[in-house]
């Protein structure tokens, strides 16, 4: 595999990390090969066994993608610590040991999880793709567009966003953009604040409740003690870890959530549903 390389603590699995509901601008273009965009750049990756090849310049790998994929963190140790807490959590972690928590751009993560409300992954990806094509700056020579800046989105009307087919979420996106641009919601303050203060700041946005705020904090601000809870995850906790609280997972709560979410999503029979 050609391209940039960095030593990284295995395991690292592209499919488990990029298709687990934490980011929505990645696609598998052929078996083991993925392409996506973040921070105004496009990246192709290839996986062969435990080896991941980054098909980019070494300087881009070190400047952007090393942090984005959290490559300097030993996820094996995190998984081992969580596995000791419960046999069910160990089974979930062993099912997808290659998941890593991405360090996404905060504004993009916030908008992505606003769009995710009452939605499913293929439709979320479609809305985000249309948003980028319509309002984002083209990334030269790639055929991709960057995620639009809040200033670009804030200048739009609901009618402008109709082609996105985002439904009720469009007005939430506009409110988020306008409050970020005006400074009423300060994303830098969120990054520097404790989780509860950050949650309160994000919930100033119309349509951002606890679940969306928690997702944005985890995936956009890398507050890894966050554990997004919706109806699905409450069922998963009640089924797999009855009587346990997400707070027990400490700084690894977000990773525990991803293990449980991915395991539950691919084992619907646990909840009396057909696969």
Written account of the structure:
The protein has 275 residues and is α+β, with helices and mostly antiparallel strands. The protein folds into three domains: 14-95, TATA-Binding Protein (2-Layer Sandwich); 106-221, Hypothetical protein, domain 2 (Endonuclease III, domain 1); 231-271, no CATH class. 48% of the residues lie in helices and 10% in strands. It has helices at residues 14-18, 58-68, 75-83, 87-95, 106-115, 121-135, 150-154, 158-161, 169-182, 187-192, 195-202, 210-221, 231-240, 253-265, and strands spanning 26-30, 33-38, 41-48, 51-54, 138-139, 144-145. Strands 1-2-3-4 form a four-stranded antiparallel beta sheet. A two-stranded antiparallel sheet has the order 5-6. A hairpin with a 4-residue loop joins β5 and β6. α4 (87-95) packs across α14, α5 (106-115) runs antiparallel to α12 and α13 (231-240) packs across α14. The longest helix is centred in the middle third of the chain and has 15 residues, at 121-135. The protein is globular and about 50 Å long. The mean pLDDT is 94.
């Amino acid at each position: 595999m050609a391209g940039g390389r960095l030593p990284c603590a295995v395991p690292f699995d592209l499919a488990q990390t990029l298709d687990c509901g934490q980011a929505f601008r990645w696609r598998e273009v052929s078996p083991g090969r993925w392409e996506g965009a973040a921070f105004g750049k496009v990246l192709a990756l290839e996986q062969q066994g435990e080896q991941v090849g980054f098909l980019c310049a070494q300087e881009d790998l070190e400047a952007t993608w090393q942090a984005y994929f959290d490559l300097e963190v030993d996820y094996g140790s995190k998984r081992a610590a969580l596995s000791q807490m419960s046999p069910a959590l160990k089974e979930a972690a062993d099912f997808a040991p290659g998941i890593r928590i991405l360090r996404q751009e905060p504004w993009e993560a916030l908008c992505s999880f606003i769009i995710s409300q009452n939605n499913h992954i293929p439709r979320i990806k479609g809305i985000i793709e249309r948003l980028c094509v319509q309002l984002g700056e083209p990334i030269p020579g790639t055929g991709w567009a960057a995620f639009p800046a809040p200033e670009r989105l804030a200048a739009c009307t609901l009618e402008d966003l109709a082609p996105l087919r985002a439904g009720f979420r469009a007005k939430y996106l506009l409110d988020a953009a306008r409050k970020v641009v005006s400074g009423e919601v300060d994303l830098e303050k969120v990054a520097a604040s404790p989780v509860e203060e950050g949650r309160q700041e994000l919930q100033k946005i119309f349509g951002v409740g606890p679940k969306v705020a928690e997702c944005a904090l985890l995936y956009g601000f890398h507050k890894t003690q966050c554990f997004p809870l919706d109806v699905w995850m409450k069922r998963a906790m009640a089924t797999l870890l009855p009587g346990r609280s997400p707070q027990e997972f400490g700084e690894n709560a977000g990773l525990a959530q991803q293990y449980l979410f991915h395991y539950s999503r691919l084992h619907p029979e646990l909840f009396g549903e057909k696969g």
